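dumping the sequnces here before i forget
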Amino acid sequence: MVNRSAQDIRRLNRFEVLRCFHATAGPRTRQDLARETTLSFATVSNLTAELLDAGVLLEVGHAGSSGGRPRALLTLNADRGTLIGVDVGETSIRTELFDLALGEMAVDERSITPSDVTPEQIIDLIETGVDTVLTTAKAPRSRVLGVGISLPGLVERERGVSTYSPYWAWRDVPMRDHLAERLDLPIHLDNPLKASALAEMWFGAGRDVDNLVVVMLRSGVGAGLALDGTLYRGTTNSAGEWGHSCLVFRGRRCRCGNLGCVEAYVGTYGIAETLRSLAPDDPLLAADGDRSAPLLAGLAARLADGDPVATEVVGQTAAYLGAAVGNLVNILNPEVLVLGDQVAAYLGEHLLAGTRTALADHTLAQPLRAVTLRLSSLPHDAVSRGAAALAFEGFLNDREVFGPVSRARTAKART
Amino acid sequence: MVNRSAQDIRRLNRFEVLRCFHATAGPRTRQDLARETTLSFATVSNLTAELLDAGVLLEVGHAGSSGGRPRALLTLNADRGTLIGVDVGETSIRTELFDLALGEMAVDERSITPSDVTPEQIIDLIETGVDTVLTTAKAPRSRVLGVGISLPGLVERERGVSTYSPYWAWRDVPMRDHLAERLDLPIHLDNPLKASALAEMWFGAGRDVDNLVVVMLRSGVGAGLALDGTLYRGTTNSAGEWGHSCLVFRGRRCRCGNLGCVEAYVGTYGIAETLRSLAPDDPLLAADGDRSAPLLAGLAARLADGDPVATEVVGQTAAYLGAAVGNLVNILNPEVLVLGDQVAAYLGEHLLAGTRTALADHTLAQPLRAVTLRLSSLPHDAVSRGAAALAFEGFLNDREVFGPVSRARTAKART
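..and the predicted 3d for all of it:
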């Protein structure tokens, strides 16, 4: 059933070359790229010829060379077009406009009024967000190469359908078609697990490793998986639903309806539940609407003051998280495991230290030795940035931009 | 970091072609192979040329063709050499000799005296097993293409080292070097999770799917993973240690020392523990030495008689197993999940039915819909057969058998 065509390989290798430029700025020779990607010089020449042809790379001069002929310096053509990344969260939508070097040009953030959110409301908000970033940056719509949109829950990517949203009781909403009609732009739909994994692969901890797990901790919880160097999606694009794996057999009721899920202990609702069990009248539990940010900010502030309740809440959360992360380490034997998103951002090093300790109690020695556990080094916009990377990948996969292999052969003759 | 060379792709595609012949017997034309593998005719011609050259395939006549030139029929050259597969279990060693079509030629099974087992004892037993199958089948040692050996626990495959054995407290034993010296044959070392996954990929439920999980249930418990069409090994070849993932936070003590591991509930020791909690004086708990086979056989016999204690033990085991298997389904979104080995063989359909029910209570709807849960259809020798497939892969990867790409080009000219 494996069907690795020359076309697939070319596509993967094209991303490898581009990821070099996104990883660290600055022009490179083909020799540099061959060394950084470990691809052969011939392959790199071939790929860069295509990318130059498509206007994604530019020649910006020559590097001196001792004796030999001068080597062309290549760089990303940031002005080739723009990309939009949208992170639809439970209570807010973040829309970002990027140039092709993934430099931020404009950002828009707007809140979602909680309870019974309809697809129409979300579509309206996304449209307003896109219009706003384009207006703010004075960027013409005609130069947008694609819009990547991360929707919460499960997404059938190829059909462009939101099959299940945990917050809004959506089932099988054909969001891509709705959005493509409204925005008149190429739409690439996926969920935050895929977007964060992609963001780490392009810009973060995944640049130099083949097996990466990105744990996303917000009100929803899950894991993005990059295995053997590629984003792992599973059979129906729902891989990574670690948040709904069972950690405490017959334990707490999760929002998904099942018992004992990881999310019910380490997501923000789970953390609130742990706080409630220790201090039922704690003022942090009183906030209306989305409690995630005030709860986590409050806990972080008290942690810094050495407050015993906050310390105990984070300690218990880290004990659960270490065991749950240990499951991923035992099952997947990753090289790097990143803790990311809201919970990791607020509780930071304190959560990390406790998680490390618990991890050692739940992991076999060999996979434990092999893994580095760390906090995400990406800025707060990992998901929208990852969504823009999804749009970039969609653009690069477009057969009208990059033709069949025969084109590359022609291109090669000119290098 | 991804480095997919033409060589890697050729190697994977070579397995694809051979797996057709192992999946169902009978000669095939290149056109048949192209259809079955979905590879291009040109690629198939190229690969079969190599395999004919190496004597792994044979031409055995021609298929009629309406008008066009006759098409050569190809088949596996079963007599090209032999393969040996060894399954080192906790209490016995199974050694099988196969022809190159993986037809069984001889088998040897011998028990391991429990307690403090040394590497020297295992090496002696393996040597005797190998000598016995060769003598039984009157097969010359010089024609053995490789010996695949599955060792329990964690194995560093490239260094050929048994890094951790759960039963015998081995640490970092360089088994491959010891064995290569004694047997004077090419040795390929791995663990039963990899061997069973490979067996399912070559001969069982994995032939037609890209994402497969093979759950191995014996005294030890784990999962073999075939993801995106290839065996997934992880960073240090220890992927699949699902048996030591946490199912019951702060639950039963596992043999690995940690608390609440899946193995402590669904491995044979875990099943004995469940029985003990229900009926502490049950005669099935009294057996000395390895209790797995008598315990499971006894439970199976009583289940058939409708015995309430046995029914409750299997019911509780299925409830744990369904939740634990649900974790793999949520995290990996496989297309097929196979329950295999001793526990599945003895408790069969009864365990499967209970596991299916529990699985539905622990899995999100989308990955649940995508997965088929079934018992392994492989005979009882999945691990030794998979170990022989490891040896076959090792032989096919041998650069002295298949040279660099340029050789294939030369070969192509002759097709």
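The mean pLDDT of chain B is 89.
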